[in-house]
């Protein structure tokens, strides 16, 4: 399966994670059975079709990330979660559906310093 979108640097994706592709079939075609509905590959791509995973993200095993989702930099998705909406930078989310459980760092200063150090690491290693 092809997933449209982007994955940042330093990302961990656990075993059994499912990243849902584009919305597979149209569900609103009058008089057309679901079996014959328009497949997503037959239409133009929209923002709802892409998944964006930021830098330094950890998606725990068995999680499901639905199409159209953005997982922000530094975010953590707990194992077995179903991500149905965007995840803010450095948020820790979990559950079905996933909800915010906390933040990875206590304040903006720590978040800024963390990203600066990651940037230095990338530059020094030319990753």
TrEMBL record:
The keyword Transferase applies. Keywords: Repeat, Transferase. GO terms for molecular function: transferase activity. InterPro entries: Hexapep, Hexapep_transf_CS, Trans_hexapeptide_repeat, Trimer_LpxA-like_sf. SUPFAM superfamilies: Trimeric LpxA-like enzymes. It comes from the Bacteria. PANTHER family: ACETYLTRANSFERASE, ACETYLTRANSFERASE RV3034C-RELATED. This is Acetyltransferase. The lineage of its organism: Bacteria, Bacillati, Actinomycetota, Actinomycetes, Mycobacteriales.
